[in-house]
Amino acid sequence: MRYSGFEVIKEGIFGQKGWRPVWRNPDPKPAYDAIIIGGGGHGLSTAYYLAKEHGLTNIAVLEKGYIGGGNVGRNTTIVRANYFLPGNSEFYSHSLRLWEGLAQDLNYNVMHSQRGLINLFHSDGQRDAFARRGNAMINQGDDAILLDCDGVRRILPYLNFDNARFPIYGGLYHPRGGTARHDAVAWGYARAADQRGVDIIQNCEVTGIDIEGGQVIGVQTTRGAIRAGKVGIVVAGRSSQVAAMAGMRLPIESHVLQAFVTEGLKPCIDHVVSFGMGHFYISQSDKGGLVFGGDIDFYSSYAARGNLPMQEHVMEAAMTLMPMIGQAKVLRSWGGIMDMTPDGSPIIDKTDTDGLFIDCGWCYGGFKAVPGSGFSFAHLMATGHHHPPAAKFRLNRFRDGAGLMDEEGTGSQHNLH
Amino acid sequence: MRIICPNCGARDRREFYYQGDALTLRRPAPDAGPEAWDDYLHIRDNPAGLTRDLWCHEAGCGAWLVIERNTQTHAIDSVTLAEKVKR
């Protein structure tokens, strides 16, 4: 069924009885042309673009849980293209352009809301760094406006501008930045991939990767063996475990990142705001909850729940930046498992095994990359060539030291990102 | 999370700095080659389960500690002074 205003009215008249499940629930076939391990945002978008851009429809997405149950349902929904370094900037620029046409492309309302993103700065040095970043964004073809303090005050009057420790000097405004509905992105891609013939197989955990003579020939799963000449690993926080099935060790350490949401409130925060001194960022969901988060907990973890020190830090930053938030009640917090690379930038590459590809290392920035990552990974899997916007996301950059993309400028070590 | 420092006793996690996998105690020779240095600097086993990490009690005695810990439950099995592990 194609969604349209007409369908909504028709179903309204006939008692909403015509809606059907939006993807099938097929049993795995014995063999496919390609298998995607991981039914998260990146895996589903990879499958969709393999089908749409490259005509590869005899493919399966294997998900050990359910669609939308991993990090794609556990993030803070921010979409932006404000990266600085070559390699990252063209990739996220491409991804943002895909976001802008995504709802039409998928025929699914992903609620992409370009409400504008403002990164605040609190010193002269930080202003200079943000001016330079803004110029890089404009050179890339994206948008950036450097706001002074009064400029920020007009847009975000509720901030504490005169904090003695972190006074607000201004902000870098990225009008095309914003948010999207995270579940809808997963569901939209799953539905659109399914419509093009992709088998989405849930509750199917991969337990082994079969390799013969240096060529991948298929996978072992909890629902039996499945053959395929091409296999893509897209499993975020579990990348090290799945790669180990193919005898690989990765430059990845998994960490927990926490996020928080308050009770639903009337609209008060119209943008995405990030606090330049406290690693804190916030937006308001369409349901009214204030969605916010901070940094990772800074020790390796697979617990999907965090510890109190970082929660305290995030709440302190929130109160420092916008004292009004003290009136809101936190409804819940959660943690996701982040596949952190040493330089904080992702990996989309071939492996030493023919036909085996890997897409991982998205750290805490994977949501905005969902369309771009899938598009570029599909390109690599289908053609064997790196897609130009993602051509620098190489696995060997760590071994060679060439092409490291240390976006935060903190160094390329595991405990710095 | 509380960590029992062999010198100071049980202290809050806030007092400790996380360095990463304890393999950093096994520094390769300067001429060991790019593979060995890549392994040392970047490549990680990244286990979902038992791990050995290097932490520093930076807001306490300053000692470097090897901590055996479960990454799925955050339970700590043992804490040893790194100088004893190293020797």
UniProtKB/TrEMBL annotation, chain A:
<keyword id="KW-0560">Oxidoreductase</keyword>
<keyword id="KW-0547">Nucleotide-binding</keyword>
<dbReference type="InterPro" id="IPR036188">
    <property type="entry name" value="FAD/NAD-bd_sf"/>
</dbReference>
<keyword id="KW-0274">FAD</keyword>
<protein>
    <recommendedName>
        <fullName>Sarcosine oxidase subunit beta</fullName>
        <ecNumber>1.5.3.24</ecNumber>
    </recommendedName>
</protein>
<keyword id="KW-0288">FMN</keyword>
<keyword id="KW-0285">Flavoprotein</keyword>
<dbReference type="InterPro" id="IPR001763">
    <property type="entry name" value="Rhodanese-like_dom"/>
</dbReference>
<dbReference type="Pfam" id="PF01266">
    <property type="entry name" value="DAO"/>
</dbReference>
<dbReference type="InterPro" id="IPR006076">
    <property type="entry name" value="FAD-dep_OxRdtase"/>
</dbReference>
<feature type="domain" description="Rhodanese">
    <location>
        <begin position="35"/>
        <end position="78"/>
    </location>
</feature>
<keyword id="KW-0963">Cytoplasm</keyword>
<comment type="similarity">
    <text>Belongs to the SoxB family.</text>
</comment>
<dbReference type="InterPro" id="IPR006278">
    <property type="entry name" value="SoxB"/>
</dbReference>
UniProtKB/TrEMBL annotation, chain B:
<dbReference type="Pfam" id="PF04267">
    <property type="entry name" value="SoxD"/>
</dbReference>
<dbReference type="InterPro" id="IPR006279">
    <property type="entry name" value="SoxD"/>
</dbReference>
<protein>
    <submittedName>
        <fullName>Sarcosine oxidase subunit delta</fullName>
    </submittedName>
</protein>
<dbReference type="InterPro" id="IPR038561">
    <property type="entry name" value="SoxD_sf"/>
</dbReference>
